[in-house]
Design brief:
Strand content: 15-25%
Order of helices and strands: EEHHEHEH
Shape: globular
Oligomer: single chain
Mean pLDDT: 87
Number of helices: 4
CATH topology: Nucleotidyltransferase, domain 5
Number of strands: 4
CATH architecture: 2-Layer Sandwich
CATH class: Alpha Beta
Radius of gyration: 14 Å
Largest sheet: 2 strands, antiparallel
Length: 115
């Protein structure tokens, strides 16, 4: 999630993908050298600065309901929920297949992949 240079945003209507676009995404490239923080459990992304970074990352997809990704830090995961975006960590690498699994109700949220 943090290393991805863009979001692939798919618009779904009546159970079908009707539009695809790429949106620039802020991430580790822009935030290099900034402090990081882990909580007492070793979970990533809990410093005050991290919350600002998560807000900047979420801004580009603030109109989205769901975020499908292959992994992210706990802080980002919880922040997305606070911004009204449902994060789902998936092991499905094909974007359209992941969206279809979500639409079919078969996608699994692999929170064990959070760090």
């Amino acid at each position: 999630f943090g290393r991805a240079p863009y979001y692939a945003v798919l618009t779904v209507e009546e159970g079908r993908i009707v539009e695809r676009e790429l949106r620039d995404k802020l991430g580790h490239r822009q935030f290099i050298g900034q402090e990081t923080h882990e909580d007492e459990s070793g979970r990533h992304g809990y410093s005050p600065g991290a919350q600002d970074r998560h807000a900047a990352m979420a801004a580009a997809i603030s109109d989205c309901e769901v975020l499908l990704c292959g992994g992210m830090g706990w802080g980002a995961y919880e922040a997305m929920k606070q911004y009204g975006i449902r994060p789902i960590i998936t092991d499905i690498t094909d974007i359209e297949a992941a969206v279809q699994a979500y639409l079919d109700g078969t996608i699994v949220d692999h929170t064990e992949l959070l760090h």
